[in-house]
């Protein structure tokens, strides 16, 4: 009886545990479906920007934001994506130290981007001033009509995803340094890297829409 029970338990266990390659394909499919669903959200924000910032007789407009700060934060985010790619590649070859160093740098750069957008561009403390002639603190507020509403919705939604991405990077960094991933099995690293690259791509689309396209309106 015990032998039959053991055989049944083994069979049931095998039925619930998919082979790793099969599970990996399912994970990838699920993540890409999530990306597609998120694209509708970001796409709606982008459409709102082009519709609401269209002024009769002027065409597309935009708020007068700091071009220097916009370029700097974008550069920081793109560099962080490079380190995420570097860390993922290192894990594929089993180089754990290189992975942990790269992911930690990416987390720090992601935090700098978050601070640049939320602290400087949002100017939550109401500061003002320039450094070397560069305006560091924005003056646009959420209640400043369609410009404030759209700008804060777009940057706020993206900043939320950046914050969740930083959290994921730190989680897999901690697991990686403890030996939870190998060159053969590291879906956590791959999934986090894909998520971070996706967030970067969204910002690459948002950046020109917010900072470059249209006539600046003070």
Key words describing this protein structure:
6 helices; mainly alpha; disordered N terminus; 218 residues; 3-stranded mixed beta sheet; single chain
Kindly report the name of the CATH homologous superfamily: Cytochrome c oxidase, subunit III, four-helix bundle
Order of strands across the main sheet: 1-2-5
Number of helices: 6
Number of E-state strands: 5
Poorly predicted ranges: 1-15
Please state the second-level CATH architecture: Up-down Bundle
Descriptive overview:
This protein has 218 residues and is mainly α. The chain has one domain: Up-down Bundle (Four Helix Bundle (Hemerythrin (Met), subunit A)), CATH 1.20.120.80. Helices cover 73% and strands 6% of the residues. The protein has a 3-stranded mixed beta sheet with strand order 1-2-5. α3 (67-92) packs antiparallel against α6 (187-212) and α4 (96-121) runs antiparallel to α5 (145-177). The radius of gyration is 22 Å and the shape is elongated.
Question: Which SSEs are present, and which pair or pack?
Answer:
Layout: H1 2-16, H2 20-52, E1 54-55, E2 59-63, H3 67-92, H4 96-121, E3 130-131, E4 134-135, H5 145-177, H6 187-212, E5 215-217
Parallel strand pairs: 2-5
Antiparallel strand pairs: 1-2, 3-4
Helix pairs in contact: 2-5, 2-6, 3-4, 3-6, 4-5, 5-6
């Amino acid at each position: 009886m015990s032998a039959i029970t053991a055989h049944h338990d083994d069979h049931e266990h095998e039925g619930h545990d998919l082979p790793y390659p099969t599970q990996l394909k399912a994970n990838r499919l699920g993540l890409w479906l999530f990306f597609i669903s998120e694209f509708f959200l970001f796409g709606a924000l982008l459409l709102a920007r082009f519709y609401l910032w269209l002024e009769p007789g002027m065409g597309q407009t935009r708020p007068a934001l700091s071009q220097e700060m916009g370029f700097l934060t974008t550069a920081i985010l793109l560099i962080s994506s490079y380190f995420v790619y570097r860390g993922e590649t290192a894990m594929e070859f089993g180089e754990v130290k290189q992975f942990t160093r790269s992911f930690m740098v990416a987390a720090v750069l992601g935090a700098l981007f978050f601070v640049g957008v939320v602290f400087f561009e949002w100017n939550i403390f109401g500061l003002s001033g320039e450094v070397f002639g560069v305006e560091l603190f924005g003056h646009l507020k959420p209640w400043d009509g369609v410009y404030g509403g759209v700008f804060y919705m777009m940057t706020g939604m993206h900043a939320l995803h950046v914050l969740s991405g930083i959290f994921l990077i730190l989680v897999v960094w901690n697991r990686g340094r403890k030996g939870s991933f190998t060159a053969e099995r590291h879906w956590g690293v791959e999934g986090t890297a894909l998520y971070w690259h996706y967030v970067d791509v969204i910002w690459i689309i948002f950046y020109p829409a917010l900072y470059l396209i249209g006539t600046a309106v003070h």
